[in-house]
């Protein structure tokens, strides 16, 4: 919570306290504070002293004090303004024994004075005795008492009026502050994520703002934020935010514009709205960017997202060049893939197939009728697999040293058999010299490549030699490894010739 918010809360509490005080003053009336004459009259009646049982109360004479009281009251009625008992006794007129500069035992005379004002200069009121206070109260006329009460009430009303005026002035001041804030532009921040965007070299992100401000006016405008989401200024109010178009990065990157819309409430300056309004702009494949996307981004860059129209034009050209380069690269890749596919595609009179991508560039082929041999590139004496079409009902026998590695039924009365050496088994055995009649001998580089081609690089030569084949010389594990791989990458592509 910032200082401004805390100040407003304290001010609201002070105003509430003033209001309660004023409401208490409004409930005060003269009847609440005026003296009750009936109680005074009761007190004014002389007390009847207790008499002995054998004395007639009618023979009792008024006491001397009561007689004096009646005379004094009579004189007071004649001269209401000369009440000598209310005179103020000054310190200068006090007897010596009542002086403030008495001499205390063992001490000299030490006047008791204030540091700045002598006590003798300050008149002190005399303190009446209880009897004098009672007499003074009886002497006071009801009119005078009411005037005193009215004075007290007037003082209270004046004090209350001053408090009310202060409170009212404070409220007016706060209302003025709120009114001023309602017409003050507030800076707010939103959340944005755009990889690689630097608005100091590229264009800013255009944000569409619509809604209603604190004056009740409709708002519909485009504002711009940097890569940190800063740059929006609005009057307090309720708004809907969305991304109007893509910015353009310095390298020409165009972003995918999110379609989400977010509602926010602007209340104070410096407000962080990233928790309520966060937009993610993703980078699409450059070759998929359209002319419309580039034109829209360039339009907003020129209208306020870039430093100038010339800068916006340069960014537009960068975006177009980046897209065109990507399109050309994709086209070239597709063309090469088509050429490669054509080179990988092989056909006989009865069937057709595609050389596996993993083998492309590493193998070559020779063809004889419906027989197709795939061999190690540059070494026709090292076949990897040989394909032979056999009519149904006829048997197939592979060449010496080869193993049937799989078969594909064409559905037209023919079956294509795949056969060849089990290199994951033959190569390690040959190099180790464990076979009496090896098919051939291979340099280590060739042996490794043959194992990789027939296993799809799923095992290294050392793993096959030490773990798969082992010392027992059995080929079952190695054979299964090769046949499984060929069944995945080669046999599914064998189809009947159109």
Features:
single chain, alpha+beta, 5-stranded antiparallel sheet, 4-stranded antiparallel sheet, 12 helices, 19% strand
Report on the architecture of this protein.
A hairpin with a 4-residue loop joins strand 3 (205-213) and strand 4 (218-225). The longest helix has 41 residues, at 142-182. It contains 12 helices and 17 strands. The two termini are 78 Å apart. By secondary structure, it is of the alpha+beta class. The radius of gyration is 57 Å and the shape is elongated. Strands 12-13-14-16-15 form a 5-stranded antiparallel sheet. Helix 1 packs antiparallel against helix 6 and helix 7 runs antiparallel to helix 8 (309-344).
Note the topology.
Layout: H1 3-26, H2 30-33, H3 37-44, H4 64-78, H5 130-139, H6 142-182, E1 186-189, E2 191-194, E3 205-213, E4 218-225, E5 230-234, E6 237-243, E7 262-266, E8 271-272, E9 278-281, H7 291-305, H8 309-344, E10 345-347, E11 351-354, E12 363-368, E13 371-376, E14 379-391, E15 403-409, E16 414-420, H9 423-432, H10 444-455, H11 461-469, H12 476-489, E17 495-496
Parallel strand pairs: 1-8, 2-9
Antiparallel strand pairs: 1-5, 3-4, 3-6, 6-7, 10-11, 11-17, 12-13, 13-14, 14-16, 15-16
SSE series: HHHHHHEEEEEEEEEHHEEEEEEEHHHHE
- Based on CA inertia axes, which overall geometry fits? elongated
Strand content: 15-25%
- The level of helicity is 25-40%
Largest sheet: 5 strands, antiparallel
Count of beta strands: 17
Largest sheet: spatial strand order: 12-13-14-16-15
What are the segments in which pLDDT stays under 50 over at least 5 consecutive residues?
Answer: 28-120, 433-439
Radius of gyration, CA atoms, in whole angstroms: 57 Å
Mean pLDDT across all residues, rounded? 75
Provide a count of the helices: 12
Q: Which structural class fits the helix and strand makeup?
A: alpha+beta
Give the termini distance in whole angstroms.
Answer: 78 Å
């Amino acid at each position: 919570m910032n200082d401004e918010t805390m100040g407003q809360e304290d001010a609201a509490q002070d105003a509430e306290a003033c209001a309660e005080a004023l409401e208490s003053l409004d409930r005060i009336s003269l009847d609440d504070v005026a003296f009750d004459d009936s109680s005074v009259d009761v007190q004014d009646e002389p007390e009847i002293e207790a008499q002995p049982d054998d004395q007639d109360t009618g023979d009792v004479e008024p006491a001397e004090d009561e007689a004096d009281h009646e005379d004094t009251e009579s004189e007071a009625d004649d001269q209401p303004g000369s009440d000598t008992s209310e005179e103020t006794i000054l310190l200068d007129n006090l007897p010596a024994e009542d002086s403030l500069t008495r001499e205390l035992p063992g001490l000299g005379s030490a006047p008791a004075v204030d540091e700045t004002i002598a006590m003798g200069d300050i008149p002190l009121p005399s303190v009446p005795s209880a009897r004098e206070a009672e007499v003074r109260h009886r002497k006071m006329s009801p009119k005078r008492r009411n005037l005193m009460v009215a004075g007290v009430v007037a003082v209270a009303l004046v004090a209350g009026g001053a408090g009310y005026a202060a409170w009212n002035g404070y409220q007016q001041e706060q209302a003025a502050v709120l009114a001023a804030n309602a017409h003050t532009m507030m800076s707010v921040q939103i959340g944005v994520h755009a990889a690689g965007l630097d608005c100091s070299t590229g264009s800013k992100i255009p944000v569409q703002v619509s809604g209603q401000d604190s004056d009740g006016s409709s708002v519909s405008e485009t504002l711009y934020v940097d890569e940190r989401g800063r740059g929006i200024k609005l009057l307090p109010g309720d708004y809907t935010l969305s991304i109007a178009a893509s910015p353009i990065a310095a390298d020409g990157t165009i972003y995918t514009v999110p379609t989400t819309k977010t509602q926010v409430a602007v209340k104070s300056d410096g407000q962080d709205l990233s928790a309520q309004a966060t937009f993610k702009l993703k980078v699409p494949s450059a070759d998929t960017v359209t002319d419309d996307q580039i034109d829209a981004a360039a339009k907003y860059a020129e209208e306020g997202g870039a430093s100038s129209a010339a800068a916006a034009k340069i960014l537009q050209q960068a975006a177009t060049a980046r897209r065109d380069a990507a399109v050309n690269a994709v086209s070239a890749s597709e063309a090469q893939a088509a050429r490669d596919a054509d080179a990988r595609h092989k056909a006989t009179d009865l069937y057709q197939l595609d050389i596996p991508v993993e083998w492309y560039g590493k193998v070559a082929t020779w063809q004889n009728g419906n027989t197709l041999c795939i061999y190690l590139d540059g070494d026709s004496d090292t076949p990897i697999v040989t394909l032979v079409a056999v009519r149904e009902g006829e048997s197939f026998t592979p060449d010496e040293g080869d193993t049937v590695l799989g078969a594909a039924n064409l559905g037209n009365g023919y079956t294509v058999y795949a056969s060849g050496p089990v290199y994951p088994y033959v190569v390690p055995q040959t190099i180790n010299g464990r076979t009496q009649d090896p098919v051939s001998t291979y340099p280590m580089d060739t042996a490794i490549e043959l194992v990789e081609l027939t296993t799809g690089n799923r095992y290294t030569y050392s793993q096959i030699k030490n773990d798969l084949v082992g010392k027992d010389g059995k080929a079952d594990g190695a054979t299964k490894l090769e046949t499984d791989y060929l069944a995945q990458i080669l046999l599914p592509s064998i189809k009947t010739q159109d």
